[in-house]
Amino acid sequence: MSLPPEDEPQEPLGGLTAPFRRLIEAATGFLSSKVELISIEWQEEKRRILELLVLAGVALLFGVLAFSLITFCVVAFFWETHRFLALLGLGALYLLISWALLVRLQRKAHLSTKVFEATLEELKKDTAWVKRHL
């Protein structure tokens, strides 16, 4: 049994819609895989940054406690003889350590890893594949 002519799907221009439909489906699949990859990398980067912040915060807390206790002990030891000299020496030491850490932090900030590196690599591969096949 055949459908009447008005109920049959009409393909304009001799069936050109099928290749365009396949092209749109391929492009949609391509884009959805890239968006999924970006989403996964974004989640990993957020988790990594949060972990770094928590570790840095805890390290800072214990560092401040340790430096406070060491400062107290040194000043108490030199209380009768050179308490101001002990405070100045510790202040200079802490200043030097803080400067060295800031320099290291600045270098690390400039040498950080690329965010979405895997996505960029995949896009480069896709671009190369398209160039080869066109």
Protein architecture, described:
The protein is an all-alpha fold. The chain has one domain (28-133). The protein has four helices and no strands. It has helices at residues 12-15, 17-77, 83-110, 117-133. Helix 2 (17-77) runs antiparallel to helix 3 and helix 2 (17-77) packs antiparallel against helix 4. The chain is rod-shaped.
List the uncertain runs.
Answer: none
Q: Label the structural class.
A: mainly alpha
The number of helical elements comes to 4
Largest sheet: none
What amount of the residues lies in strands? under 5%
Query: Could you say which overall geometry the principal axes of the C-alpha atoms support?
Result: rod-shaped
Q: What separation lies between the terminal Cα atoms?
A: 43 Å
Q: Tell me, rounded to a whole number, the average pLDDT.
A: 79
Oligomer: single chain
For the record, the count of structural domains works out to 1
Measured as a percent range, the helix fraction is: over 70%
Number of strands: 0
Order of helices and strands: HHHH
Radius of gyration from the alpha-carbon trace, in angstroms: 32 Å
List keywords for this structure.
single chain; mainly alpha; 4 helices; 82% helix; rod-shaped
In brief, what are we looking at here?
The chain has 134 residues and is mainly alpha-helical. It has four helices and no strands. 82% of the residues lie in helices and 0% in strands.
Describe the SSE topology.
Elements: H1 12-15, H2 17-77, H3 83-110, H4 117-133
